[in-house]
Amino acid sequence: MDSAKLGLLTTLLLGVFIIIGALVAFLIKRKERVVDFSLGLAFGVIVMLILTHMLPETIELLGLKYIFIFLIFTILGYMILRLLDNFIPDHDDDGKGMDKEELKENLIHIGVITSIALVLHNVIEGMAVYSTVLSDASLGLAVTLGIGFHNIPLGMVIAGTFYQSNENIYKSILSILFVSLSTFAGGLIMFFLGLSSISPIISGILLSVTLGMLIFISMTELLPRIKNTKNKKVTYLGITIGVIIQLIALFI
Q1: pTM for the full model?
Q2: From residue 82, how far is each of 216, 217, 224 by CA, in Å?
């Protein structure tokens, strides 16, 4: 399989992880333990991915001569997701003070705004992952794994929000499919641009952007939620398994 096709496949797989999370939300009763485990697993995988793969690979491509490029585009990748995150409302509102109709309208609003932000987020993420695969296939697959585990609890949140707002499982499934395919859309954009090979500098820039995104996901999305999980043992087990997975991948 050539790198372009593999890149498209990995962006498609990112969406599959969202669908898996949605299915878990619909089918499994003890969702909380699964979410806590997935959060720990994603954190362990992503942190090890940053330390053992992303940093060494990016510095090797850019060299110390272009360290300023590394810093600028890592910050840019972080800020892109930071900006998009501002459009995703927190889900801490318990709905007090709202009647049934107001609560339903609020959930619909949250679902729509969240979808718009996630689609933008996923398109950019898909483009970054596709580019990473072209630069280094094994690194691209590792990035896909880390982001993919992060997408499982995300898929559960999306499914819960949509289903509570419309109480129609078919509409919820269509909405989830739309969001999940947006990462693949990012890969298709890169594919139709005819990107078949990229210079070390461009590869380093794109990896820096991806690195910034992973830092944002791990530090501002996963870590705060991990601190508040109820099933600490399950979460720590997930982190441990995530670290082991990346160590095995490193030695292989």
Answers
A1: 0.64
A2: 7, 9, 15
